[in-house]
Description:
Elements: H1 2-25, E1 58-60, E2 65-66, H2 68-72, E3 77-82, H3 87-103, E4 108-113, H4 118-128, E5 134-136, H5 141-145, E6 153-157, E7 163-168, H6 173-183
Parallel strand pairs: 3-4, 4-5
Antiparallel strand pairs: 1-2, 1-5, 3-6, 6-7
Amino acid sequence: MRLARGIRSAVIAATLIAALAACGAEPRGGAERMPGELSDGASFTAVDDAPAAPSLEGELVDGTPVDLDALAAGRPLVVQFAATWCTTCADQEAALAAVAREYGDDLAIAIVTGDEQPADVTAYLDRRGLPYPVIADPDLRIWRAYAVTEPPATALIDAQGGLVRVWPGGAVESTMREQLDRIITG
Length: 186
């Protein structure tokens, strides 16, 4: 009996260690989360009166340097400004996931976090399982460029780099879909 308990404990420990190792190896907001190839037949319409989007130059949480072109990869981009302590930001995840499912490879999504501690961001990404690239912006330089004063906020950038809209307080899913339907035409 005692031997069986010891074996069971060893199996449980090995399983936990393997699970923790897998979690540590799982991409968490880094380069592995950058957009892939566009879908066949993808086409986009520019918003004529959209001003050029401010810079999104920075580093992903894994240290990978990125900019607007890399994040968008030739398609519209939704940028979610968030922080790990923001409960409303967590509520926005459902809207982001819904539009990501609907538009698939024709839409890129990125998160810009204002958190100062990389460990907090990594723990949050592990907990929430977010599948997007995450730009670390601890000095809030990117936030200020987009006039974000508190999270959440959502920005929509068309495929030509025009700033279509910024929603302070985050975007409502139906409103985001209306805007996306205007610019994703293929």
